[in-house]
Sequence to fold (321 residues):
Amino acid sequence: MADKAKIAILISGRGSNMAAILYASKLPDCPYDIILVASNNAAAKGLELASAEGIATFAQDHNGMSREEHDAIMHDAVIRSGADYIVLAGYMRILTADFVQKWTGKMLNIHPSLLPKYKGLHTHKRAIEAGDCYGGCSVHLVTAELDDGEVLGQTKVKILPDDDADSLAERTLFAEHQLYPATIAAYVTREQNPDWILDQVRKRALALEETLERPSFGAPAWRVGNEKSGKYFAYFAHRHFGENGISLFVKTSGSDEQEALLDADPELYFLPKFYGKSGWIAVRLDRGNTDWDHVEAMLAKSWRIVAPIRLTKLIDIANEF
Ligand code: GRF
Fold:
């Protein structure tokens, strides 16, 4: 297995989600380790448990300091621990945009509702009062907007006829304890997951003008132009075209560009066996640190090479302004 992801958990109180995540990390094959549990409250129950389980802990009360100062201290503690990810588990603090920005795509939270419903507090009460059939919980990426980032996983929890906010919260917690560790595990291994990689390519390919997906020899592939006369500008190779691993084929302007790319980064690029002669280059997508902006630029360039003039002309005109 690849190196395990290192996770710091931030808590404010009981820490039952922290405990669930921690004990999941002890199962064979769990792809993450908990290396720090930190809190804004030295009396948080969860700290005691973490430390008894041999996990490093850190506490810094927020009283008497600005939000910026406190976030900076927490950030420092996490950086010193060597964590790659922050997991918020009942961390009752509004975070500064600066702190959130430093952990973009690397900070997760759990919220006790089916987001985008019921952001903020009193989620169970609000779900019951609205007459919903289900409450639930969501794990999401943290963005500057409260409870607003991309949802990574959700579990629905049936609302029973005589539920009140407390009974629903209690039952939802069971779901949280299952959902959070599983979602963290899937998230930290997403770069090895072929479906996730394909989604990354697909959304970028389909964002280009007049594109559609049409498989080619069983491989997902994308064309530009209309049904009939459209042309392929990208192929996703995962055990296709006689190649190993996962790669994306995009069109180059010809052999000079192919050579230049191979020279510039022989680890990243290779000549695809089937399409190398007709000017295509393969970009490896399974190395774990893919630069998706770069892939996006390669797709756009390839699109530009094969797109009909009526489309590229419009773009050229727009670019002049
Ligand atoms: C959970 O209900 C979670 O959804 C919310 O805060 C609570 C934390 O509980 N974000 P615990 O400290 O993990 O027991």
About this structure: The radius of gyration is 24 Å. The longest helix spans residues 165-188.
